[in-house]
Specification:
This protein is mainly beta. The protein has 2 domains: 203 residues, no CATH class; 224 residues, Tachylectin-2, Chain A (5 Propeller). It is 11% helix and 30% strand. The chain is built from 7 helices and 25 strands. The strands form 7 sheets. A 4-stranded antiparallel beta sheet has the order 8-7-6-25, with no helix packed on it. A 4-stranded antiparallel beta sheet has the order 9-10-11-12, with no helix packed on it. The N terminus is likely disordered.
Length: 433
Amino acid sequence: MSSALIERLSLLVERHLDRRGFLSSSAVAASAVVAAPRRFLLEPNSAYAAICGCRGDCPCGSACCDGYTEFCCAMFGPNECPPNTLVAGWWKADGSGFCDHGGDARPRYYMDCNADCNGCGCGSSGVCALSCVDCGCGCAKGNCANRAACCTRFRYGQCSQNVKCVGAIVCRVVTCTPPWLFDPSCTRTVATDNVTRTHNRGCLTGTKRSLLARKRPGSNQWTLLDALSGTGARFSIGFGTPDDMPVMGDWNGDGQKTPGIVRDGRFWFLRSSMTSGPADIVFQYGKPGDTPVVGDWNGDGFDGPGVVRGNTWHLKNRVGPGPADVSFGYGRQGDSPIVGDWNGDGRTSVGVYRGDRFMLRNSNTSGPAQLDFAYGDPDDVPVVGDWSGRGVDGIGVVRGSQWLLRFRASGGPAQLSVDFGPADEIPVVWGRS
């Protein structure tokens, strides 16, 4: 058969595998059309066999040759699309067990981060040539034990449909959060590839997702929501006394944020489980009138206490009495202190909410705000959390019973709105792995 006919056959199949067709049974089949069209179309072998062996010296059976792309968190750290890429499509895998909760089986979602085409055009497939993108096709980090990066030219196409042309898939993001909540450009059109349900990396299973809670004023009752939805299951615990200030933190490094209360700005009472009962840890830190804050200031996996006194922050890396590990000035009197991991480096850093502005720093030091943007109204209560499980904190405000959330620390419209009240309760953010 002539090369011209093979090319015509390849283009014909590619048109039927475009971003609106969804005719492929898996991403591997689509990869084969682009990476090895002659073998895929003309020889009686599988899509896997068509691709296997295409990564230089890597042997068949190595991860680099299985047709799938490496996870973003394994390549870059955060479980999110890196710069100069966008979410171009998604699929789900059932039966993985990773996202099951409360005895209910739930799917796991995989999102492709496709490269920017840098102005190149593309055919009907919506995917531009490898020569148009700024990354080279090969095993991630040059290791055959890693899946490929920037090799698979394919687009499921339920996301970023306003972008006509995208490049090869640089890496994959995986969450238990539906893609249309992770990235509002994604539609709910479903593609399924259960072969990927066993694909995993340690950087995925350790990801923490933030959830919503409230403490009732004049009471020791806390109400917690187990999903980012107003219809999620609710449960209650009793902890502390009516006038205590609620906090949440991972006090023992187990990946779970559990409740604490601060009394009179200085007496800390912490529990190590999300249950009612007496405090497991008690210590004194701070002075009357201090505002308590909690975070993993040094990235060791343990949350420590902190207090803000005027505009001076005093932070400790572990729970317990003693002097601050770091003290510095940031903000001004009257600001609302907030903390979060704004850049995905695994460390909690400081910020303030002033009027309707978030003013944030990526380090626990004095200096000007590195992120400064408007969001919310002056009477809103600011909240911070990793709403999508990508390893980076987003921001939000609570207005009455409405939680108006954004997945990144940036201005713009709310990406998720959750009705969880009543309005007079104190909002708190908790989380689980």
